[in-house]
Design brief:
The protein is an all-beta fold and about 80 residues long. The protein has strands at about 1-5, 15-20, 30-35, 40-45, 55-60, 65-70. It has a single domain (about 1-70), classed as Beta Barrel (Elongation Factor Tu (Ef-tu), domain 3). β2 (about 15-20) and β3 (about 30-35) form a beta hairpin.
Length: about 80
């Protein structure tokens, strides 16, 4: 979950597939980004495992184009069998 999300474009209702950088020195990873209409908080679901921490920045790209970013609130792990 992230907070204070700022995006250049709106997130489609079905979500948005994009690249995400969690650290300036790390490579981008593919993710699906969605946002709650109720409170503006969103979810970044990484397509591969990464260690994330609350307070960490999350910067969202479409190839080289910066789409926006936000701050990570918490980490939720999903079971591969879920």
């Amino acid at each position: 979950m992230y907070k204070r999300l700022k995006l250049a474009d709106q997130i489609p209702e079905h979500g948005l597939s994009a690249s995400v950088r969690l650290r300036s020195s790390s490579s981008a990873v593919q993710a699906t980004i969605s946002r709650s209409a109720k409170d503006g908080k969103g979810r970044v679901v990484l397509h591969e495992g990464c260690v994330v921490s609350p307070g960490q920045a999350c910067v969202i790209y479409d190839n080289e184009r910066l789409l926006g970013g936000g701050w990570i609130l918490n980490q939720v792990r999903y079971s591969e069998t879920a």
